[in-house]
User: Which sequence fits this backbone?
DNA sequence: ATAATAACTGCACTCATTGCCAAAATGGAA
DNA sequence: TTCCATTTTGGCAATGAGTGCAGTTATTAT
């Protein structure tokens, strides 16, 4: 990752490939854009793309790994005196908060990921890493192993909430992601209290 | 789908392909088994497999479409006087109830799906149909459109519960899927009531 | 026997992905 | 300047999934 002082310099970068790829995806669609197209548009070899991204499906995710570290820190900084579900809920909201002006590229990224079947499928593998971050936080608070039922469930439920909010957001870009997430959490709590009241 | 009275008879069946494929998957692994291998083992053309399954990834799912109809009926028959979340929870439990003796092939199927990265990814597309069944049920009860936030969230949360239970079940085959699902639901309700008590 | 029908399957092609390795580019050393 | 170590690039070949096309094959109906 660090810039080598010796050796042949890199001809391109993750960001450059990503940018060109997104332009082509927007023009012709994800499936109709071949890696050859992208390589040719960049003036590099097709083989070189694989030195920057593990697969075509990984291109839209770009920097997700780094983003995950921020999420971990964010959760760790959450006050321990609020209920677990509230802490995770707040963490998810904070994680997905960003200025409305900076959204356009982010909207495009998420739209591509959520609307392209091949990417919907591939993304599960990324989501698993995200869930793991939550499972580890929950496990710490519950003092159990991260692989046990409760931490895993918390990760899955948080993902359920986030995915639902994102999908609505794409259909209704005026609504803020934040309020959709909060609305989802309210619904979840309301359903649970119905059950509690009935039993 | 109906047996044609005229024309060349089918040389194989979904079940036959599925069975042979599973045997080879078990022997060499999913990725290492090519469609040519499966076709050859069956003595049919590779091309013919595509007349029965849309893709290699679809083979492990076999009859899921038909299963989904049963799930729809099951939810529709759920009493309307119990809370929505309880009804969905009970529906999911019932849907996944099956005799412990009949499990072995089902375990193998789920293990393959849940442990093979390519299948984990592909399965999202199947899960989406499953979630849709729940979303439609929830929408009917809530008297809103199935595409709105609440029904969609209910589908996602139910899937979160089911996936968590299945994953635990694979690691701990002695535990019944039913009790894992119920344990998950109890955890979810407990977390929600913590939040309710704190606010 | 012939026709109609429905399924099977070989052929050729596209495209993602991977292993292998020679070529290219650069800073530093001799 | 020339040579060397280092690092990246990218061509080549091979594998395997997926797809359109067209000819072949097995049955039933006339």
Assistant:
């Amino acid at each position: 990752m660090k810039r080598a002082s010796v050796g042949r310099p890199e001809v391109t970068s993750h960001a450059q490939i990503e940018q060109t790829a997104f332009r082509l995806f927007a023009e012709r669609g994800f499936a109709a854009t071949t890696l050859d197209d992208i390589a040719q548009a960049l003036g590099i070899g097709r083989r070189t793309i694989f030195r920057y991204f593990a697969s075509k499906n990984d291109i839209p995710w770009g920097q997700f790994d780094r983003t995950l570290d921020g999420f971990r820190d964010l959760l760790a900084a959450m006050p321990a005196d609020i209920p677990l579900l509230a802490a995770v809920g707040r963490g998810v909201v904070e994680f997905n908060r960003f200025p409305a002006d900076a959204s356009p590229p982010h909207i495009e990224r998420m739209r591509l990921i959520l609307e392209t079947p091949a990417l919907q499928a591939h993304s599960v593998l990324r989501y698993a890493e995200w869930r793991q971050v939550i499972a580890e936080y929950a496990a710490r608070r519950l003092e159990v192993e991260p692989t046990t039922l409760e931490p895993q469930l918390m990760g899955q439920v948080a993902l359920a909430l986030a995915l639902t909010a994102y999908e609505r957001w794409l259909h209704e870009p005026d609504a803020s992601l934040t309020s959709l997430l909060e609305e989802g959490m309210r619904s979840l709590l309301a359903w649970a209290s119905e059950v509690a009241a009935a039993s």
Residues 117-142 of chain B form the longest helix (26 residues). Residues 4-9, 34-36, 47, 50, 54-56 of chain B lie near DNA strand D (CB under 10 Å from a C1').
